[in-house]
Amino acid sequence: MTRVSTMRVLLVEDDDGDAILVEALFEDAGLEVELVRVRTIDEAVHALDVDCVLLDLGLPDAVGLDALNHLLEAGAPAVVVLTGLSGADVGLQAVAAGAQDYLVKGEADAELLGRAVRYAIQRRRSEATERELYRSQVQAVENARLERALLPTPVVVDARLEVGVGYRAGREGVLGGDFYDVVERPDGTVLALVGDVCGHGADAAALGATLRTAWRTLVLADTEVGAILPLLERVLYSERWAPEIFTTVSQLAVAPDRVHADLYVAGHPLPLLLGRPSHVLPTQARGRALGVPVPGEWEPQRLELGDSWRVLMYTDGLIEATVGGGRERLGKGGLIEVVDAAREGRASSLVDEVIGQVCLRHGGPLTDDAAAVVIGWDGGA
To answer: Which tens digits make up the pLDDT trace of 178-215?
Structure first.
């Protein structure tokens, strides 16, 4: 058992004689104790920044388990109750109600008091560790569930089409609102989506998962491509937790012939057409972000891609990354440099290589989460 060097103990006791006895017992036990005494529960709830509370169950303002319940509701640490009542029934009831141990006045000596307090502190700390571990496990399960909803496996039948996806959580390792998806329709049209819910944390992740699921549902239901974003915005309106929440998305619809595509942009960074060098895809049809209450629709930009091409879609976590820990951001120019270097290196996963290299330039994990999708065609070879 690890001994506590200096224990901070709060004694809640209205009887001066009993208080003097407790102090003497601590001295006889040879323990280093910082002892604070109060006489009532009302005083005690304002002095709980201690390692352990010795609680008399017969106080002027609370008697029996009511006293214990008041302290526990106030966030008390380890509690050892002191009872002058005959028998151990009340003490056992107190332990069942949340106390770590109990002592009967007149029966506790220095050794027993010291051992009860030390054990109570250790048990309380062990319980706190177990609760934190449980919360972490629950959080991990929830993150995994959200990750499956935010970051699904692409549904593409055409094996000749290159499809790569990737995601990296932000610095705290908590999922944000970035999401992606790629789905091929029965007629051969392939639709790809990258989106970003404003904000961070569980609410943004949950909304992103909802929007991503709604998007796939609309695609699988053969919704006309031009109607998908307006319908997705209706889902956003009904599911967002505050009226100022918006979402940016980029949607690419690759035709069955694979030589042209329609690009829809809703307030999102423009995709890159990879080449020598890579460059930002041109568009005169940028639309507003979903959920922003200003006029405007989302018109497609027809892209003539040719027989061989690769397109990178991404969220702003990649271009807003600062460089080398400074204030300068990577930007689209810096991302293009990273992409072209990754292409020359012939990494097995271009998306993972790009995200990894952005993290290296940033100097560690990204502040914001980041998602990316690569779609490519090499003439059907």
So the answer is: 999 999 999 999 999 999 999 888 889 889 999 999 99
Q: What DSSP element (H or E) covers 377?
A: strand 370-378
Statement: residue 3 has pLDDT above 50: no
Question: In this structure, which CATH number among 3.10.450.50, 3.40.50.970, 3.40.1060.10, 3.40.50.2300 belongs to the domain 7-131?
Answer: 3.40.50.2300
pLDDT at 174: 61
Q: What pairing do the DSSP bridges indicate for beta strands 301-304 and 272-273?
A: unpaired
Which amino acid is it at 64?
G
Contacts of 342 (CB under 8 A, 6+ apart): 350, 353, 354, 357
Domain map (residue ranges) of the chain? 7-131, 151-378
**Is 151-378 a CATH 3.60.40.10 domain?**
yes
Answer for the pair 56, 68: CB distance below 8 angstroms, yes or no: no
Contact indicator for 119, 129 with CB cutoff of 8 Å: no
Q: Fill in the amino acid letter for 256.
A: P
CA distances from 256 to 153, 189, 217, 299 (A): 21, 5, 20, 20
Q: How far is CA 107 from CA 18, 31, 64, 87, 329, in A?
A: 12, 19, 19, 11, 69
